[in-house]
Target: L1 transposable element RRM domain-containing protein
Amino acid sequence: MAHMAQNQASRKKGKKVTIENFYGGSTQGKEENEEEIQKNSEHASQNGNYQQALEDLKLELIQKMETWKEKWEKEISCLTDKNAQLEKELEASNRRADKAEKQNQSLMTRIKHLEESEMIKQQESIKQTQIINELEENIKYLTEKVTDLENRGRQENLRIIGLPEKPEVNNKLDIILQEIIKENCPHVLEQGGKIEIERIHRTPSILNPQKTTPRNVIAKFKSFQVKEKILQEAKKKSFRYKGAPIRITHDLAANTLRDRKAWNTIFRKARELGLQPRINYPAKLTIYFQGKVWAFNKIEDFQAFAKKRPELCGKFDIQAQKARET
Model:
């Protein structure tokens, strides 16, 4: 018993059981030692199987790891290629962006230059407009001045309208004018029964065969006072030559005649309304209305005046009158 207890104590302490220890004890100890040996043998066998299984598992894991490694290497290679492609695309995009930025800057520069050029052109246009306006004002002033000088140069002239266009008349216009004065205002004649005439002629100088009306006659007198006397008599009554009616008026410049002619429609209507219209020098309309004499240099001024007077409003619509006449 003491020997057996000693063997058990040895196992608990982890000591190796030897043959000597085994056979040194009792029979029961021998049996227990044999069982222990058998268990140790089975345990060793099982340990061998575990080692083999671990080796197999390790081999399988190594194979799987190699497979995964190949896949990862392929994935990494693919990602590397994609990354390189993306870098190329990014680089190309950056180049395009740089190019677009340069183009944008170039366009902005051009736009700025164009705006500056446009501003300069506008300023030049404003200056040119001012210069043109000044020139137009100067031209207007000079035209009026020339017209006035031309009218003043014609102040000794009279224009005879309606004198028949015949050879026997055209060849002796000075004599016929004397006859007209004797017939219509003999008290104007100077001593000797004649008027001194500097020159007399038809105008225009060339006869237009397409016109049926006779050309006007322009007579220049040596005395302005005599010419005015004849003109005043012509305003008082209608002149005649051998019974045929003729008109005697101022001889004025073409521009003044045009401006006077523009008053014709208003003049006729004012005469119908009893406004006693007159055309004064150079082309000024005067009327007698509500006990006062009113003067107008422009048609627009007269129309504005008429619109404010109920008695005249709507009666001087030039366009409507021209349409009715047409």
